[in-house]
Amino acid sequence: MKKKFIEESVLFISVIKWLFLASCVGVIVGLSTTAFLKALEYSIGKASGYNYYYLLLPVAFFLSTLVIKYLAPGAKGHGTEKVIEAIHKHSGRIKLLVVPVKLIATVITIATGGSAGKEGPCAQIGAGLSSAFADLFRFGDRDRKKLVICGISAGFSTVFGTPIAGAMFGVEVLFVGGLLYEVLLPSFVAGIVGYQVSSALGVTYFHGPLNFIPDFTSVYFIRVCMSGIFFGICALLFVEVLRFFEWVAEKIPLNDLYKALLGGSVLAVLAFIFSTRYLGLGLDTIETALGGEKIPLPAFVLKMVFTSITLAFGGSGGIITPIFFVGATAGSAFADIFGLSRNVFAAIGMVCLVAGAANTPISASIMAVELFGPRVAPYAAVACVISFLMTGHRSVYPSQVLSISKTTSITVEKGKEMKDIENVDFKPRDGSISGSIMKGIEKMKKEK
Fold first, then answer.
1. CATH of domain 218-390
2. What does pTM read for this prediction?
3. pLDDT tens digits for 67-88?
């Protein structure tokens, strides 16, 4: 009886402790995210008043690369990836200088037309402030990691106005196929508090429940499953396009600053040729797709290219907002090809691309409920899981650690980062259906 009392007392104290600490993180991230979003909104408004604002892209990439290279190299990339790396390799330690540098570099990039998102910087800013908070009160490595994860959750929640999906994203994005249940409570608290703080300070969010959802039929369900396969292939393509342009940037024998000028120039030319639709956040196009209006069929591929050039050649920003753009426009294209409802499949595509590219099917499914209402949730959840499986062992976050194999038909080493897994020579397991098919194909080749 005494042992049970001691156990319950310790658990009670732990709950109170993390309710308080996670609330503190939520307030800190809510305030910092609001400041960032307001600064970004003001900058975009000023820049967009000029017809050819995107001609400043070479200068913007140059300045972004300059401040990151010499002030805070940890601010390079699309934000969330660096936080994942810090949690796995540095016990969540993030230099405080990353916070202002990331904010400035991202505002410069997106305001002038760089194709990037706002959630990565918010996650990195929130995580950086959470790490500083942990250092200030001399918390150990274990508690620091938990606080930094809370920073990711709160950052995601306050950017998109999805507190539950944001909380799940923070605990799901670190490991592919694994959830950190010990951080579940503080992540939920941080996400909800951060969202309430930013909402109270005037940040507005898009929530558009879908009023028309077709009744369930076997044919319609098959089409939803087919869309999951299509969105999974799109997510895989996005990952590979990102990797390709990173490879191209590495192979160019120039200083990083000159690469930034080159990348900004190329992006400005592409914007002049195709459209300014693919620059910046692209929120207007996302809302147009969700509204059921027609979108050019190749829009999702062009956005992949614009985003990849931005992030590979010195631009700063997140990856999830471009993923939303790719998903919504790919969903619209899928609906046009098969004669389906554009707004329904734009909504499903938007969350499916997150599930596949970021390997977060649970948070993506919850996001479908928070953004579009419960009626689309069953279809979105099924498509999200299919998209997650179709992407294979790839990710826009190469520092994610693999906890499970996505199929028992493939032998893959667990516990490694995704960037290392991608180089493994996959072989189907003996006795599996895939293995039998592969053996049959090899036998036919030998007979020929």
1. 1.10.3080.10
2. 0.91
3. 988 888 877 777 778 888 888 8
